[in-house]
Fold these 3 entries.
Entry 1:
Amino acid sequence: MAKVGGNTQSCGRGGRQRVSTHLDLEHVALELFTERGYEATTVDELARAAGVSRRTFFRYFPSKNDIAWGAFDRELERLRCWLRECGPGLAAMDAVRQAVVACNRLDADEIPWHRKRMALILRVPALQAHSTLRYVQWRQVIADFVAPRLGHPADSLVPQSIAYATLGVAVAAHEQWLAAEHADLPQLLDFALRELASGFTLPSLTGVRGA
Amino acid sequence: MAKVGGNTQSCGRGGRQRVSTHLDLEHVALELFTERGYEATTVDELARAAGVSRRTFFRYFPSKNDIAWGAFDRELERLRCWLRECGPGLAAMDAVRQAVVACNRLDADEIPWHRKRMALILRVPALQAHSTLRYVQWRQVIADFVAPRLGHPADSLVPQSIAYATLGVAVAAHEQWLAAEHADLPQLLDFALRELASGFTLPSLTGVRGA
DNA sequence: TTCCAATCGGCACCGGGTGTCATTAGCTTC
DNA sequence: GAAGCTAATGACACCCGGTGCCGATTGGAA
């Protein structure tokens, strides 16, 4: 058992050392998932493979569905920061686009892991469904940003619509990225979000129909 | 036990009569859900309240989550029809907007049921999550419609983005409708989808900030 | 050393969902 | 009217995800 870094006891004094790490369990799980399939892998197997009891496993992750999400909270915070610190001169939709694009620039060595992660989230039905619950916070970040710029409450129609639409487009871009072996995620996001900001009124084939 | 109408044996000859109807079970379930809450109502209770065995219940509905969706397939077909029969002169986004709006005009007597249904789907986490899986088909209808008009495959980036964005905006509109007691759903949808088609570039407060 | 605090493991339990199989009920045919 | 086909039903056993509970373990602090 290698020495695990960053295994800081969260708070306070005393108490037993954790026998494993969030990240350890996550990696073991992702291996098994991609190897045997998500549904075919039971939590018992996950726990046993990680050398932890089933009960303990559920103390690290609230549910099997949450395993694939890794440091999503940190991603959220990045997005929130980017938007908080962008200049007020930037139009709302431009800011949103640039923020989403910027937060999806990955280091080359992270890409394989991120592909695995997203392949699970986007393609396994149970995780696809569960994602909705995590995306709520993501949308909230967008809505909270655009709402004051528009002079509307964050829970009103337009900010919510923007948040939903942006999320949808981002997911679509991720799907394309995942489907193409060497696609460039930021580029796909940038393109798709520009389309969104133009209302999808592409000049390409409006009424031409012949080309 | 009242005589149930429309209890047509699906196909073929012979065989035992169904003891209940899809619609019967659905109504019983919706009552119990809104009365005791979704999570607090077990399938056993549902089955017993409907006078059916638990096992039989799962022959009517693939899962507890699917109960609230009623005649969703028929709704899908309506949408598909509307889009199929709209003139080619209509711009893609306009057609989509009009189709969605038209398919959400409800008879006054359907509204209370639809509110119950949507309150479950949009507010109960388990159903909120599950909805993602049903929306796949809805998005497919949109993507299949816009794709040929744009000269792209239906599974490519722009059609998928439009489908995702449209769905998102429609859901946002439904949430607003649900939150306001006497809101007009078609009107909300029309407004929000116009915003989408304009890229959310509302002239309202672009840099004004004072009003 | 003693005490405290947090984690861990095991157990029982609940609820959703499925496979299997015998039973029941209707319709058709003889 | 009886035999036979067909389809729906109900009961049972099972799997799996998730939770509450409690005693046992492990460390640091007093």
Entry 2:
Amino acid sequence: MKTVYERADIVPVFAETFRELGYEGATLSRITERTGIGKGSLYHFFPGGKEEMAGAVLADIDAWFEQAIYRPLRNDDARQAIAAMWVNVNDYFRAGGRICLVGAFALDDTRERFSSGIADYFIRWIEALRSALMRAGCAETEAQTLAEEGVCGIQGALVLSRALRDGTVFTRSLKTLANRLEAATR
Amino acid sequence: MKTVYERADIVPVFAETFRELGYEGATLSRITERTGIGKGSLYHFFPGGKEEMAGAVLADIDAWFEQAIYRPLRNDDARQAIAAMWVNVNDYFRAGGRICLVGAFALDDTRERFSSGIADYFIRWIEALRSALMRAGCAETEAQTLAEEGVCGIQGALVLSRALRDGTVFTRSLKTLANRLEAATR
DNA sequence: TCTCTGCTGTACCGATCGGTATATCAATCT
DNA sequence: AGATTGATATACCGATCGGTACAGCAGAGA
């Protein structure tokens, strides 16, 4: 059999594995087990090993957020883009059933491996949201505070809903944040 | 030499080790290296191994929050207790330089090992804060929302300040949250 | 002084870690 | 057909994993 895998097909499986087990917890045997791909192929596509695999996941995540969240926030109608952000974020994180890998990596030593990528992800998110808020009528300092508060709140909601095993906490928190930002743009 | 260690002396060192490396990343060799205690003593005090060590840390953390945060929120003057909470939390987390181990454990598979302890920590925090908010004059539903938002925001601020390597983000976020709650109690 | 108890360091256990080498396979090109 | 290429499974590597066994050692009580 010659089943050819594409990086694009494998990376999302990596992502879920790292999400569930963390960087250290995601051993190569776990990864081969979940992807169904042997070490041979794994190292063929990712000669850099585990670190390259996780790096590919982060790049994949970054690309998704760039096109689905950041770009609309920067370029499209501000109010609409912000509203779409809440919906897309709720879907992406499966209403709290899925964590933010970037945030999780930031919390422990794994941060040192992907330092700049992790910082970028959040900087660009906050900056894009701030831009949208200002276009929607916020003053600069308020927009900055609210943007930080929004991104912050999302990360916190992920932690909390995981801890409580209650996805409604996540969706409810997003709603509260959305109202808060909406109130500030009129 | 007969240097007798107390569990109370060791546990905080465990805590920092788990914080920095995560549960999987905190190997026994790392732990012995940081504590300066050999495996012999380690397993003498903690026959249950790594899991018991981490469990002791969680119990330690829980006890600290109970006496320093939750109890005042439940019993003392509401406004004062809330104000004290922000100060104590900022100190405890070293202005964002130290993460919340409970939150970190919640994010990956480690949650399954300490499930009830993790959930309890957050449930009691939110409940205590809600109680204080109500005594300070909040309506019940608003108090619940604000309490969740507060705890949520703290967790998010920890993630964000770690990711950005910027402790000012943490302190600033706490300030914003404090203002938010203050505004709702008058 | 002589036990006895509690603590400690160390050697060791099987299992698994991340990673490498290689032989084989399927498909394509000449 | 024969050679070449890319993809795959597998065996294997030294290192380290979490955990155990145990011998020795210091101090308290007899």
Entry 3:
Amino acid sequence: MTVTFKDVKADLLDKIAQGIMAPGTLMPNEMDLAERYGCARATVNRAMRELADEGIVERKRKAGTRVRKAPIRQARFSIPIVREEIESKGSEYRYALIDRTLQDVPDWLRGRLALKPGQEVVRVVCMHWADGIPYQHEERWINPEIVPAVLEADFSANGPNEWLLAEVPFSNAEISFMAVEATQDLADHMGCFAGNALFRTERTTWLKETAITFVRLTYRRGHRMTTRY
Amino acid sequence: MTVTFKDVKADLLDKIAQGIMAPGTLMPNEMDLAERYGCARATVNRAMRELADEGIVERKRKAGTRVRKAPIRQARFSIPIVREEIESKGSEYRYALIDRTLQDVPDWLRGRLALKPGQEVVRVVCMHWADGIPYQHEERWINPEIVPAVLEADFSANGPNEWLLAEVPFSNAEISFMAVEATQDLADHMGCFAGNALFRTERTTWLKETAITFVRLTYRRGHRMTTRY
DNA sequence: AAGTGGTCTAGACCACGAC
DNA sequence: TCGTGGTCTAGACCACTTA
């Protein structure tokens, strides 16, 4: 059996985890490792590159590869579509549109989306339920310049999230997580009390350099967002 | 100039973003693309593999590569050390130990850490300030079986986080984000009112299959955790 | 100046899985 | 069955960065 990059990676990881290669240690260069493992340099390169991508080691030309003293601990979150999130738990998904208006972009949002004063945006407010229990409150603003079809879109049956995913192929985004105290209005929708702590995510989505949408997702009381890394 | 995998990747991304390759589209196979771009198949492979890693496309042997209908939107968070987080904002970092005890593992934690009843754990409570303002409250339990040195460790000058990072080289973890209402005790420490909504992360860290530590980090009111993707 | 990683190439073999 | 991606190889050139 030939030595694969996964073999090399696993062995290096093991040596790091066992403390044989302590944080700060300078690792052998690719050529030496290739010889030691009996494989090509490209194989070692792939293994070490992945370790670097994962923040375990740090690579510099000429300086070599070192085990990171303080590994960059990074978590990867997949941002699910709420329908799938609910249905994957075996719950019944329900959706309702609360409000849909065309309005001048509010000042606080103008900066975020880099829009001109007086420009119009579509604001959509809706709710998502799991087994009839409030799950998530969604408040969204959409820039109709990029997605003109939003002016015709009817969000009474399906949420704007799924609609946008189908309409806009690919985008980059900025996302924030925070805790908020429920307003009376939010509390009414979420079936909790005003002032209760709720978990919220805010996301601004861009296509190239122009903002498409800003969304505020507020989850029911006690919601946790979890991941492994 | 030769064609690099970044060139290929950027061009493919562009075609996807422009809708030339719409979601669901079957992309040409690696050999054809290599010929079209005038490069080796390995170059195309690297470009497409990275697109797959980022959740933009989906690859299956024999079936080929498709643009994902619903791209896996995933965010990468780097989990910073509090001290660095604060100092990188140009603020002055301050730390204080609140409590340090050796106690029987509480029932609710036993399951999380997979410990035996009656086993002892070290509990550390401490605070982190930025410019003298409460920034983060830390409550941590450490398994002394894995890190016996914790029994001798004195956390009066430095937080257990940095200490653990130096002691335990590498680990995997599960992390959760949530919103909580401040208890009176928390409120006293954080300089807010009981009931205020606070952002909290909880993290369980493992070395191989054994739990090292469970930590509960509660941030000051209004804190946001932000990332781009 | 010189060593290290970054990448490309051309060819090869193989495993998966759709047909 | 057989096309597609997954990976390895051996060699090469280059860019960065530090000594």
